[in-house]
Amino acid sequence: MTTTDPAQTFYERLALDHVDEMIAAISDPRVGTYIGGDAAVAPDAIRARIERVLEGPDVASEIWLNWAVRHDGVVIGWLQATIFQVDPSERWAEIAYVFGQPSWGKGLAAAGVRWLLATLDVPEAWAAVHPGNARSCALLERLGFARSAPTRTLPSYEPGDVTFVIRRAREN
Ligand SMILES: CC(C)(COP(=O)(O)OP(=O)(O)OC[C@H]1O[C@@H](n2cnc3c(N)ncnc32)[C@H](O)[C@@H]1OP(=O)(O)O)[C@@H](O)C(=O)NCCC(=O)NCCS
């Protein structure tokens, strides 16, 4: 098993400067298999997606947060979150993550999602996963997510997806 030194990994707020490196990392049919196919990971689609997420949401009740993951000096992945601020006392998030194939199987994505959850610090986080995406399901379960029918409207949900939730224990 390859182990990962987290000190070699940096999470950078996504910027237009990352476009070319992100294309190099994730424009790969293997990456697109469960997230929209070849079209979703075509260079122009990645560029357009980054430009759109950097514009931000059209509604005040959402916050879009994106990070490029740099490991050993190279961009290897993308961490994504939408925070929904329902009212001042209720916040939850939907997360997603995309890593380049050469970095799979090393625990780098799991470390990234663990970092994302700690950074978001929300009481409830959801993810929607294609049922065939065994790697993504295993990652979420390893981090303590539970399979659950959605009780929120998840923007990235596609019919048939498996949905996962992790809830922080309430503080007394
Ligand atoms: C989903 C995705 C992020 C999962 O990546 P991954 O590398 O399999 O996930 P992890 O980081 O949890 O790595 C797990 C593997 O690393 C191994 N590993 C090695 N060192 C480890 C460590 N320190 N900690 C945890 N796992 C470690 C595990 O044993 C496991 O090995 P296995 O694949 O042989 O079972 C990746 O496949 C991907 O980006 N796919 C394309 C986009 C996508 O589908 N995104 C999800 C949309 S819902």
Describe the structure.
With 172 residues, the chain is of the alpha+beta class. The protein has a single domain (8-167), classed as 3-Layer(aba) Sandwich (Aminopeptidase), CATH 3.40.630. Helices cover 30% and strands 31% of the residues. It is built from six helices and seven strands. The protein has a seven-stranded mixed sheet with strand order 1-2-3-4-5-7-6, with helices on both faces. Helix 1 (19-26) packs across helix 4. It is globular and about 40 Å long. It binds coenzyme A (COA). Coenzyme A is lined by residues 1-4, 31, 34-35, 96-99, 104-110, 127, 129, 133, 135-136, 139, 142.
What would the CATH topology be?
A: Aminopeptidase
In percent terms, what proportion of residues is strand? Answer: 25-35%
If strands are numbered along the chain, what order do they take across the biggest sheet? 1-2-3-4-5-7-6
How many strand segments?
A: 7
Which small compounds were modeled alongside the protein? Answer: coenzyme A
